[in-house]
Amino acid sequence: MIDLRSDTFTLPSQAMRDAIYNAEVGDDVYGEDPTVRKLEEKGCELSGKEACLFVSSGCMGNLIAISIQAGRGAEVLCAAQSHIVCHEIGALSSIGLTQPMIVPSTGDGLIIPSGLDNFTRGYAYDMADRPLIEVENTTSGIVYPLESVKSIHAFAKKNGMNVHTDGARIFNAVVETGIPLSTWAQYTDSITFCLSKGLGAPMGSLLCGSAAFIEKARRIRKLLGGGMRQIGFMAAAGLYALENNVERLADDHENARMIKEALEETLWAEIERYGTNMVFFSVHGTDNASIISYFRSKGILALEDAGYIRIVTSLNVDRKQTEEVVKAIKEFRI
Predict the structure, then answer these.
(1) Is the distance from CB of 198 to CB of 245 less than 8 angstroms?
(2) Residue ranges for the chain with pLDDT beneath 70
(3) Is the Cα torsion angle 280, 286, 292, 297 positive or negative in sign?
C-alpha cells in the first residue's frame, strides 16, 4: 500500500537499523549513555541553543516546556488549531495545569502577530498570569513567515513573556525556506523537534533551550516517567536521521506538490490547505468516504481529518509511487 495517512508511518531504513544495532549505550538516567550525549550535542549544534534533552515524544517535550515556562494557574497564548490544544489529550491543562488562551490566527492556524496586542494586561490578583506564547511551525504543513516569528518574539520580550515553539516538523520549514534551524530557534526561548515523522526515526524528540531550562526539564522528564536507560539505541536512529534525512525532505515537498496539482486539475476536489508535505482537500459531487474507498481500491491509504481528506508524503513514498497516486486521481470519475 502507498501510505499517505501521515509521515508518522515511516519505517527505518536498513542503514538506520544498522546504526541502532551498533549503537554504544549506557544508562541515560545517570547521564552515561554516550550516544544520547552525541545526539543532544547535535541538537545544540543545529539549534544554537545551550542545551538539549532527548525526550520520548514531541508531546512530552511540549508539556515539559509549558510546565516550566507557564505552569499551575497560568495561561499560554496559542492558536485554536495548535497541536497542544487539539491533539495532546488535554495534557496542557490536566498535567501542566496551564490554561490555553486562544489568540487570533489565520485559517491555516498561524498566530496573527498584531492580534496579540489585545492580550496584554497588568497584574491582577484574581486573573491568571500570561507568561508564554506557543508557536507551531510548521502547522499542518504551513510554514510561518520568519517576520511573523520575529514579531511574536519581539512582542513577548516587550511584555516579559517567553516563546515556546512546537517544531515537530521544523526541518520541513528549514528545507522549504533555506533558513537554518538556528535562525528559527533564535526567536524562541525553547523549541522541540521530532526525530520521527519525516526524518524517519522510530521515536523521540529533542527539547532545546538554555542550560538552566534544560536542567529543570530533565527533572520534569523524570517526574513524567520519561527517564530512559539504555536509550542510545533510539538516539542512534535520531542521529542517523539528522545526518542523512533532512535534505531529502525536499523530495516529500515535491511529491506533495505533484499530488496537489493533480487534484487542482479535477472537477471534484478543492484544495483547502497545502504546505510542504501536506495536502488537505474537500470534495464535490461525492463524499470523503467514497474517495478514501476509491484510493484504497488503488492501493493508496488516505484519511479524513476535520472534515477534509488529508494526504501526507514521506520517505516511504517515492516518486514512482507519487506518479501512481497522480494517475489514480486523474482516473477518478464521479
Answers:
(1) yes
(2) none
(3) negative
